[in-house]
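Field reference: sequence -> structure
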Amino acid sequence: MKRLLLVLPLVFLSVLTTTPAASAHTQLISSDPKEGAQVAAPPQQLTLTFNEPVRPEQTTVTVTGADGTAWTVGQITAKDASLLVPVTPAGPAGLYTINFKIGSADDHAVTGAVKFTMTAPLVTTTTAPPTTTTTAPSSTAPSVAPVADVQSDQSTGLTWWAWLLIAIGVAAVAGAVVWLRRRATQSA
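Structure field:
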């Protein structure tokens, strides 16, 4: 009986200290262009691949250069665990940063960045003669695809059912201890 009293708390403690795999957060596993890549031609589409499916409607992606030049970002779509991000490149050769904020399947907001270098300046060709229309000055703020507001969950990571299981476990251990003590005093 004493062994049982020693084993039950150890089992309970091991259950409390292990983290279930489902509580892991979404992580970026690859990108195109890759982190630190040097590209000669600017990409027309970015690909961000994660370890689990993500929600494109809860995703924000921006691309900015070291000089603050922002690329235009099109409608973001998802294919399996990858986000496909059409972009319209702008700016000179140099370092560019892809910043992303995604809404994952477990409703956590995940942010990150991928840096790459464009080695050749952006080549623009004009086929039509220039016109004399007046346009509004362009903004240097990053363009973003429309998304839903993603709220970050600042909890400890345990869901309500995990706390319920912990409470049931504590009650079961306490009940077993009381029952074993009563049984020991009755037989003495």
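Note: The chain has two domains: 2-20+157-187, 25-118.
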